C-alpha cells in the first residue's frame, strides 16, 4: 500500500513538474497544438479534393447552407435582411438571365464593378453558377487604369452597379470598340450602349441552373481575379484559385468562430479581405454578416450594438479612426469579442483595448496573391503571426539579409542568400512548392516572374518575394517591420517608418502620421519627413514634438521635416499613400501645406521658410 501511494505521489509530482515546465518553457504549447490540428485537418480535406478531383467550392458550400438554413439571415444591409434563400434565388434568376439574355458561357471571364451591396453577391454567385470567372474591379479607378484591368483578365463583359454608370464616362466608347458588352443593375439606361438587367429579372426563373456548369475538378482552376491596390503603377490582376478561396474562407473558423457569429464587414468587397475572408468565412460557418456600403467610424459601434455583432473585420488604419472618435459612456457596451484583419500598429492596438474592452484582435498576414499566411491566434499585441517547428515543416519560409542601400537581398560569394539570426530583421521569402503554389498575375508572365526570386539557397529553387521586412523572436512570434522601399537609410542607419510612426503617434496633439524619406542634394540616403494631421481642438506644438523626438527616437530616426495636412491620402484599403509625398519633397514654395524643420538650437520644430530651405539645399545648414 505504502509502495503504491509512493508511486502515485511520484507520478503526481512528475505530472505537476511536467505541467510547470510546459508552462514556463512552452507556454503556448496547447493553444498552438489545437490551432495547428485545425489547420492540418482542413488541409487534409483540401488535399482530398485534389486526389478525388471532386471539389466542394465556396459556392457549393453556400448552396449547401441555403438548403440547410434557408431562412437564416445571410446579409443585413442598411436595415434590410436577406436570407440564404433570398440570395440563392436571386442569384439563380441572374444566372438564368446571364445564360439566356447576356449569352455568357462556362469559362468566360466577366468584370464586376459594384459598390458594397447585396446585389454584388447575387451577381458574383450568379456568374459562378454558370461557370464564369469574375474579375472584381476597384470602384475608385478610372479611365486608363480601368481599360488596363479589362485587358489583364480578358473580360469581354462588364456588369456595373446602378450608382457607378457615370464612372464609364470617357471610356464607354473604348469599351464598345474593344467589343466589351456593358450591363448595369438598372431597369432603364440613358446610354444606348449600356444594357439593363433589372427589367429582365422578374421574368427570369429562380430555379437552379444545371450544377454541371459550376462544377470543377481542380482546386487550381481560377475562380476570381482580384486587383492589387499598389500605391504606384497600374493594378495587377492576381489569379485567385478555388484553393485560395477555400483557404481564406476557413479563416474565421480557424480562429474558433461558430455559426452563431454576426460578422461586421465594412471593407470593400472588391478586395480579398472582405470577399474571400469576410463573405467566404460567413458562408463556411453558416453565419450572418452585416455589410456596410462604406466604413463609417461614427456609425460603427451603433451598428455593432444594433445587430449584436460578435466579430468585425479591420484593415490598416480603421481601428485608429475608431479611437479618434469622441469618447462615450457606452464605448465598452457591445458584444464584439473578436477582430480579424491586418495592419494594426502596437500603439493603436493598446489604445483600442483600453477604450473598447479586451477584444481579441486576430492579425492575419498575407497578400492577395501570396502563397504564405501567418495567423496570430494567440492575440499577442504587435505581432502578425505565430510560427513553430511544426508550422515550418508545413510552410517553408525564410528571413534573409537585405541591403537597404542597394535595395536588394545580400548574397554570399556563391550567389546565395543569407538567413538572418533569430530576432533579426530580414526580407520574408516563401518557398514555391506543391503545398504552397504561386499562381501569379493574369495577362503578364513578366509581372509574375518579377515576384519570384530564384536560386535563393540552392540552384533551381524558387521563392515568392513578399517585399516585407519581418522579424521572428525567440518564442516564434512574427513581427512586421516595414515594406521594402518604405524603410530608408539616413546617417548610415536604417529607419523603419512604422516604428517612427508608432512613436510619434503617442504625442497628444497628433491624430494621424505618415513617415517617409525625402532626398536632399549632397546627402546620402533620405532624410526623415512626417506628414501629420492635428487632432481637433489641438494645435501643433513644435517644442513638445521636439522633446518627444529627442527622448524616444535615436538621432538618425528623428524626422527632419514636418508637413501638416488636413486630409491623409489613403488607398481603398486604408493604406497610407507615400509616393506622392516622397515626390513632392520639402520645398515650401511648391507645397501649400505648412512645413516645419527640426532646429536643435531653438529646441523645437520651426516653420520651414524659403531662406532655410535654400540654406539646406546649398549645404550651409547642418543637418
Describe this structure in words.
With 623 residues, the chain is of the alpha/beta class. Among the domains are: 84-240, 3-Layer(aba) Sandwich (Rossmann fold), CATH 3.40.50.980; 385-438 and 445-482, Luciferase, Domain 3 (Luciferase, domain 3, Roll), CATH 2.30.38.10; 488-617, GMP Synthetase, Chain A, domain 3. It is built from 20 helices and 30 strands. The strands form 6 sheets. It has an 8-stranded mixed β-sheet with strand order 2-1-11-10-12-13-14-15. The chain has a 7-stranded mixed β-sheet with strand order 7-6-5-3-4-8-9. Strands 16, 17, 20, 21, 22 and 23 form a 6-stranded antiparallel β-sheet that branches. Helix 18 links the parallel strand 27 (527-534) and strand 28 (561-564). Helix 9 (242-249) crosses helix 11. It is globular. Mean pLDDT is 88; it is low at 15-22.
Helices and strands in order:
Elements: H1 2-25, H2 29-52, H3 58-68, E1 73-77, E2 80-83, H4 84-100, E3 109-113, H5 118-129, E4 133-136, H6 143-153, E5 157-160, H7 172-177, E6 181-184, E7 194-196, H8 198-201, E8 222-227, E9 237-241, H9 242-249, H10 251-254, E10 262-265, H11 272-285, E11 288-291, H12 300-307, E12 311-315, H13 318-323, E13 338-342, H14 346-356, E14 360-365, E15 374-375, E16 385-386, H15 389-394, E17 397-400, E18 402-403, E19 408-409, E20 425-431, H16 445-450, E21 452-454, E22 462-472, E23 477-483, E24 488-490, E25 493-495, H17 497-504, E26 510-518, E27 527-534, H18 542-552, E28 561-564, H19 579-584, E29 595-599, E30 604-607, H20 610-617
Parallel strand pairs: 1-11, 3-4, 3-5, 4-8, 5-6, 6-7, 10-11, 10-12, 12-13, 13-14, 27-28
Antiparallel strand pairs: 1-2, 8-9, 14-15, 16-23, 17-20, 18-19, 20-22, 21-22, 22-23, 24-25, 26-27, 28-29, 29-30
Helix pairs in contact: 4-5, 9-11
Subcellular location: Cell membrane
InterPro entries: AMP-bd_C_sf, AMP-binding_CS, AMP-dep_synth/lig_dom, ANL_N_sf
Enzyme class: ligase
